[in-house]
Amino acid sequence: MELWFTEKSNDSVGLTLLIKEHLYHKESKYQTIDVLESAYYGKVLVIDKVVMLTERDEFIYHELLTHVPLQYMENPLSALIIGGGDGGTAREVLKYRSVNRVVLVEIDEEVIETSKKFFPTLSFSFDDKRLEVVIEDGAKFVKETDEKFDLIIVDSTDPVGPGEVLFSSEFYKDCSSILKDSGVLTAQTESPFDLVYRPVIQNIYKNLKTGFKTVRMYLGSVPTYPFGLWSFAFASNRVDPLKEELKNPFIPDGLKYYNRELGRCVFNLPNFVKEIIDET
Ligand code: AG3
Ligand 1: does its nearest atom lie under 6 Å from the Cβ of 65? Predict the structure, then answer.
């Protein structure tokens, strides 16, 4: 018998994967966690029936979320990751020799445990001594911490359920206040091709603008996310990627997606996407 998994992107479109094996199912305190062995994309991490990552294309999302901001920084020392319990974002940030401290705040420790069991190519980052893991609500953490960071990365789920507060203007203002002067925040901000999500994205960018002087969107193509076209936010009070040059003298070896030519031009947006942002 053939087994297929479908994530419905909206009521009339979905992504369907042929599944070889359902490896794991767990109801955690916050959400359901599943691991599927797919025929084409390798192992798939699914939370609340939504694809978080696949082994085969996770590099695109994780490299975009991290190297785009890190290449605009001369000497990044510290990073705060909100979410990101699979370890993929931490893996990329820790490739920078200048980075001596990464704090990862994940609300659900079951995500970390699942990644340790099934996704060693991401979760090996948890063995790095520079990484501290805090099991807590990210919004609460940014409100209460006294520490300041060079980089904040919001590696969240979609803006529904427990992840919703991570797109609010209060959260962004709190992030802005714990960012060093020349710091940058990046966040995943859904698919601009999704008509249903358009007002949601506009709201996210409106909220970001209440916390940061400069807010830019950039794009990448992630085949296993809805519509294959994904957006990210770059927010800062000092750095405008459209006006400044890349500053980091170091770039990690062996990246599979990011290079500096690409890193400069990901901010050039198609007209239909510009329109979404201009309306905010
Ligand atoms: N963060 C989730 C991105 C959103 C995917 N949305 C969807 N499939 N509807 C991924 C976590 C990877 N570190």
Answer: no
Ligand 1 contact, 108 CB (< 6 A)? no
CA of 249 to the centre of ligand 1 (A): 30
- pTM of full prediction above 0.70: yes
Q: Counting atoms of ligand 1 from 1, which one is nearest the CA of 88? A: 13
- pLDDT of 161 strictly over 90: no
The residue behind tokens 């890349």 is 246
Q: Which atom of ligand 1 is nearest to the CA of 9?
A: 9
CA 158 to ligand 1 centroid distance, Å: 7
Calpha distance 185→179 (Å, rounded):
8
Can you tell me the distance from the alpha carbon of 131 to that of 29, in angstroms, rounded to the nearest whole number?
24
Q: Is the CB of 87 under 6 A from ligand 1?
A: no
DSSP 3-state helix, strand, coil percentages of the chain (rounded to 5)?
A: 30, 30, 35
- Residue pLDDT, tens place only, 196-217: 889 999 999 999 999 999 999 9
236-263 tens-digit pLDDT = 999 999 999 999 999 999 999 999 999 9
Whether 65 shows a pLDDT value over 90: the answer reads yes
